[in-house]
Amino acid sequence: MKKTFFYSVFAFVFFTQITFSQVAEDPEIKKMITEIKAENLETTVRKLVSFGTRHTLSDTKSKTKGIGAAQQWVKSEFDKYALESGGRLTAEIDYFEVKADGKRINKDSKLGNVMATLKGTDPTDNRIIIISGHLDSRVSDVMNIKSDAPGANDDASGVAAVLELARVMSKRSFSATIIFVAVVGEEQGLIGARHLAENAKESNWNIMAMLNNDMIGNSLSSGTNLRDNTQIRVFSETIPFLETEDEAKIRKATSRENDSPSRLLARYIKTVTEQYVDQLKVKLVYRNDRFLRGGDHTPFSQNGFTAVRFCEMNENFDHQHQDIRTENGIKYGDLVEFMDFEYLRKNTCSNLATLANLAWSPKAPTSVGIEVKNLSNSSAFFWTAPEGKAPYGYQILMRETASSHWEKTFFVKDTKAEMPYSKDNYFFAIQTVDELGHASLPVFPVPIR
Ligand SMILES: [Zn+2]
After folding, report:
1. Does residue 388 come out as left (phi exceeding 0), alpha (psi in the -120 to 50 range) or beta?
2. Measured distance CA(71)–CA(185) in Å, rounded
3. DSSP per residue over 346-374, as a string?
4. Could you give the CA distance from residue 403 to residue 98 in angstroms, rounded to a whole number?
5. Rounded distance, CA 449 to CA 447, Å?
6. How high is the mean pLDDT of the chain?
7. How far apart are CA 256 and CA 96, in angstroms?
8. 184 CA distance to ligand 1 centroid (A)?
9. Cα 321 to averaged position of ligand 1 atoms, centre (Å)
10. DSSP string, 431-443
11. Which of 30, 313, 315, 346 could form a disulfide with 231 if both were Cys (CB 3.0 to 4.6 A apart)?
């Protein structure tokens, strides 16, 4: 009897007070989700299709056709939302010159990304989140600048999501800054995204996350005829493109192959999507992008930023990059009639849950370490509170080594914790959290002796 008592007290003292985390829900995020409308997304996609082609090298002078007219229209939409944002949202076209490259740019050209910045309200918070879609479109021949290239799904769907999120979110105030952007030059070699990523690196932007949305509104596969509007794929790099020698050493020593910052972001997206968006699951794909293909998040990853790609579950190659035509009874072309706007709405809401939780989250803990002084079947962690206002608390995420997603979440108030779980058998990460459940991106601990 006495012995039992001793052990229970011992356990209490030895292991920090840990409770299973309660899932807090923010009513404001739920409200914003209801404000995202499939009708608005459809109106935007139809408007973008009306420009004929949005090829990067197409007409820039016409008011109604070509990439120039499309850019001006997206900017004018951002400007409309800016009027209701109390001066916090500002829009611009970020023009830049590109030289002919003998490949997909056949003459020196002036290109422009259309951007709207929703400035964060906390002057001590320099974190930035970028969400993108690409404005340009193409047909079978990537150099064809004349034929109609509706690009309803690729990627008017992504641009429509960006605009709808800017409309809803610019009515609210967030601690961190959100940049909504419709980039150009995707089909010509990710040129607009690369320009933005390189600018961001040069200007030392503190980018917390970059969310690329490219083809998020089609739910029927070609060839295999699979229909699925209940899942969205999120692609994230496994080994970071940009990794220092020291980072590689620690990754190998701690078996961190499946916990790159981008993978931690992808899991975060899965958590908040499945919390806030009804009838949508996030399918994590363990690669930077689809097999041998890339997207606008890639230049961000290559410049060392945390970036992922959202993409529909099943692609339709009868519609992607195709001249509009009918052959053997099959209709080709990226047309509005093939879109699933309810699916596009849910995928936009997945982005919303991610952006809002991140932009309201307390800053992440720093110096997150796992103690390895002695061999032990428990795991002890130490970290430093972020600068500024103390967070409500911390969540320790845990999963078995062969599991894709976090399985348990523990809550602690302190900046250290010791848990009766072996670091040999589990992976852990630590995040800050506020009273409404907004959590920072998790930080993977490094060994500390
Ligand atoms: Zn695309």
Report:
1. left
2. 12
3. HHHHHHHHHHHHHHHSPPPPEEEEEE-SS
4. 45
5. 7
6. 94
7. 38
8. 10
9. 9
10. EEE-TT--BPPPB
11. 313
Taking the alpha carbons of 241, 247, 248, 252 in that order, is the dihedral positive or negative?
negative
In the block, which residue shows the tokens 């009708």? 39
Distance from Cα 218 to the centre of ligand 1, integer Å: 12
| CA 58/CA 146 separation, integer angstroms | 7
- How far, in Å, is the centroid of ligand 1 from the Cα of 357? 26
Strands annotated E in 99-238:
109-118, 127-134, 177-183, 206-213, 231-236
Q: Which amino acid is at 82?
A: A
Query: What does 41-93 look like in DSSP terms, one character per residue?
Result: HHHHHHHHHTTSB--TTS-SS-SSSHHHHHHHHHHHHHHHHHHTTTT-EEEEE
Cα 202 to middle of ligand 1, angstroms: 26
The residue length of the chain stands at 449
User: And the tokens for 435?
Assistant: 């009273």
Q: Give distance in angstroms: CA of 348 to centre of ligand 1.
A: 16
Main-chain phi, psi angles of 289, to 5 degrees: -155, -170
- pLDDT tops 50 at residue 375: yes
**Dist. CA 39 → ligand 1 center (Å):** 22
At 60-84, the pLDDT tens digits run 999 999 999 999 999 999 999 999 9
Report the C-alpha gap between 33 and 35 in whole angstroms.
5
Residue 185: which residues within 8 A CB-CB, separation 6 or more?
56, 98, 111, 134, 136, 191, 192, 193, 195
Rounded to an integer, what distance in angstroms lies between the CA atom of residue 377 and that of residue 424? 8
Centre of ligand 1 to C-alpha 141, Å, is 15
From the CA of 134, how far away is ligand 1's center (Å)?
A: 7
On the question of pLDDT at 12 being above 60, the answer is no
C-alpha 26 to ligand 1 mean position (Å): 33
